[in-house]
Amino acid sequence: MRRTVGRDARQAYRVITREQDLSAEPRGWLRRGFFRAKVLFLGLSYKLTPARRALFAVAIIAAIFGLFKFNAVINTQRVNIDFSSAWLLLSVVLLVFLLALELVDRVLVRDELEVARQLQRDLLPGTAPEIPGYAVAHSYRTANEVGGDYYDFLPLADGRIALVIGDASGHGMAAGLLMAIANAALKLAVEVDPAPERVATLLNRVLYRTGDRRAFMSLFYGVLEPTTGRLAYVCAGHPFPLLRKAAGEILELGTGSFPLGIRAEVDASSAETTLNPGDLLVLYSDGLPEAANPAGEGFGYDALRTLLQQPAGPQTIHDRLRRALDIHVAGEALRDDVTVVVIQRMAEAPPIAGAVES
Known about the structure:
CATH superfamily of the largest domain: PPM-type phosphatase domain
Shape: elongated
CATH architecture of the largest domain: 4-Layer Sandwich
Number of strands: 13
CATH class of the largest domain: Alpha Beta
Low-confidence stretches: none
């Protein structure tokens, strides 16, 4: 209970003060308390509509008046005028009224988000395709009701498989809508020409013409030939996937580029590698290495590499990553979506395992 309350309080403070400058926070506990009270008040005020902001200000003023008693001199006699209870009652009524209005808005938004969340879940793969000679494990966890991570396995007509993982900018509804646009554009691009550079170019053009420069998306897109293990790929602003060779060496796959949608022309160039028997490929979103514990420390890329160095199959590696992540965050709410896809080339293909979580 104590941990839950503390976690919720920290999350509420981060959300309310997101637009405030916290770099000037003083060190003394008393001054720090006044500073945090000020930024909380300003943060709450900025998140209210003008009319509700005025009611909030009146409620605070009424609460302040309720802390004092006033004296007056009438016919040379000093009379105590005590309206403190009335002022405090007015403050409580106004705050409860504001809370009720915000709860109504919250319920309406929650219903809309639930519809969007279901649509988003329909865009993600429930299970991975059966790839002869390969084993796959995957999962997706959202930080909000609607997330911005996207991944898919797209079978091509010639037997190849397109592997996709991306991360739309922002969080919540905006990221989910951008992800839906990218999903439609990506599938159209794959039908036209599945070559990595061509897909990245077309998807970049669609996102750039969305109009908002804050609407962009990181992407790793690869085309795998199951029979040979040849993987042609492009990486645009996405965390480099890790390839653990059968001998234990860990390689990064990526040439580096801006995310899609920022510039009119994408500068991502394709590259190639080969998945030999025993090689294991890990695709992930930045929500994994950036997941923070209560002290604000990220999970980190070193921890990810350390877990990959321990020999195991894709499902075991996937479960280790998820378990290590849960231990690291120690109950803290995720600040970003976390997607993990693990693919291994094997002599025989065991059953496919996968799940999509909320």
